Amino acid sequence: MFDKKTYTSRRDHLRKNIKKGIVLILGNVDVPMNYRSNTYRFRQDSNFLYFFGLDQQGLAGVIDVDSGNDIIFGDDYSLDDIIWMGPQASLAERAKDAGVDQTMAFDKLADTLEKAIREKRPVHFLPPYRAENKLLLEKLLGINTSEQASMASVELIGAIVALRSVKEPQEIAEIEKAMEVAWLMHTTAMKMARPGVYEHEIAGVIEGIAISAGGMLSFPLILSIHGETLHNHAHNNKLEEGRLLLMDGGAETAMHYATDHTRTMPVSGRFTDRQKSIYEIVLDAQLQAIGSIRPGKTFKSIHMLAAGVIARGLKSLGLMKGDVEQAVELGAHALFMPHGLGHMMGLDVHDMEDLGEDYVGYDNEVKRSGIFGTAFLRLGRKLQNGFVLTVEPGIYFIPALVDKWEQEGKFKEYIDYTKVRSYLDFGGVRIEDDVLVTGEGYRVLGRPIPKTIADIEQIMAGRR
Question: Cys-Cys link to 232, which of 224, 228, 374, 410 (CB 3.0-4.6 A)?
Fold first, then answer.
């Protein structure tokens, strides 16, 4: 945990941005894998971590906007629990670490909420994403699970997004702690990648690195020779000569701050000329996009800049044609990059998206596009000093998408489908780094993970 003053200050700042009432922040509980006592690894709710810091099951926090009081609800461990788990601090002792003096048994939460409702005080809650908390909210507030997302407090969501978007110095330090782990993860994959190795052999080592550093993966590892499948979590392929291996993976610290990087490497250890030509376009798009980051600039405009670089590069290879600017404006480039340039990061690898992607990535000034590809951009609004975000352009050759667009005659004035078909065995290339927006521009976080062709080939040349 951070110092208790951090959590007290965060709750006080939140109070200043909520007019009246009480704020309910639910923690998470253990989730069974196949029977009640065999659970998945516990992951605390990020908003509960942000405001209360306690990484423990079965808790809820109430922030009273009107009185200034904070309460943590939960139950102390029983003797039976201690027999299995060992000695445990009391809830009151743990709450003091978060700067909270008042604790109550969990079953008193209902009484507190009922009292607020009787007094006609607003009860602000967030849209739940876990079934257990949806059922709990239904029991506590009488709101059907199907209506909870729409009835969540927009005022609270907005206040939390404003707070969590700008990272505190200690948060940036924690993210950079995870960067060292991420560096080892990706460089290890480069050293392990060779013909005949199965993806799951590498994936197991990579997850082990994250766990051995005291944390965990920040999301299920994407590692595949089929990089054209954007979120490919299958690891059952054998690496083959001439293929590219794409790894999108991040580390999460014990305090749950995350990283997110992608690297693409040649299984043979050296890029072919065709692979180089595509890779260099993606790298150029990434470098130009990162170089244009600064406060006050919309990330949507940076996304469009990267899309233009990709389209011009593909035109130089004969894969696209015609007026490049017009092609990008209409979305023709999305055949090759059907996703957004990046997203916010912090306690979540897609920071705060449980609150609603549009609340995090857009505002009254910048609206989400309705055009395929650009519509998937998670972050579009103006950048601010203290934002941490990813920059991850890519080029992919997705057979099903190519088939569909060609059959429809879509953008045939901008796409040479005959040429594109000769790349359907290519796979995909994505390059991703995590970037802090600073007062003067940007800073790429962490020790640089090799990403130039020369650097990747050099580290792969040392494989054993």
Answer: 224
Interval 37-87: pLDDT, tens? 899 999 999 999 999 999 999 999 999 999 999 999 999 988 888 888 898
Outline where 57-122 has alpha helix (H). 79-85, 91-97, 109-118
Please give the pLDDT value at position 81: 84
What are 380's two structure tokens?
């579009």
Cα dist from 55 to 50, 70, 83, 276, whole Å: 10, 17, 20, 45
Q: Which residues pair with 261 in a beta bridge?
A: 249
What Å distances lie between residue 8 and 52, 95, 347, 350, CA to CA? 8, 11, 18, 25
Same domain, 161 and 195: no
| Helix count and strand count (H, E) for the chain | 17, 17
Confidence of residue 444 (pLDDT cuts 50, 70, 90): very high
The answer to whether residues 159 and 176 belong to one domain is no
357 and 394 housed in the same domain: yes
pLDDT category, 32, cuts 50, 70, 90? Answer: very high
Q: What is the CATH number of the domain that holds 81?
A: 3.40.350.10
Look at the chain and report how many structural domains it folds into. Answer: 2
How far, in whole angstroms, is CA 430 from its chain's centroid? 16
Per-residue pLDDT, 15: 97
- DSSP states of 7-30 as a string? HHHHHHHHHHTS-SSEEEEE----
pTM above 0.85, yes or no: yes
Mean pLDDT of 149-154: 97
Range of the domain at 271: 169-461
Q: Which two tokens stand for residue 322?
A: 């015609």
CA gap 97, 95 in Å, rounded: 5
CATH number at residue 363: 3.90.230.10
Cα 292 from Cα 302, distance rounded (Å): 7
Q: Are 445 and 365 found together in one domain?
A: yes
Q: 315 and 193, same structural domain?
A: yes
Is the domain of 128 the same as that of 178? no
CA–chain centroid gap for 447, Å, is: 20
**Residues 258 and 390 grouped into a single domain:** yes
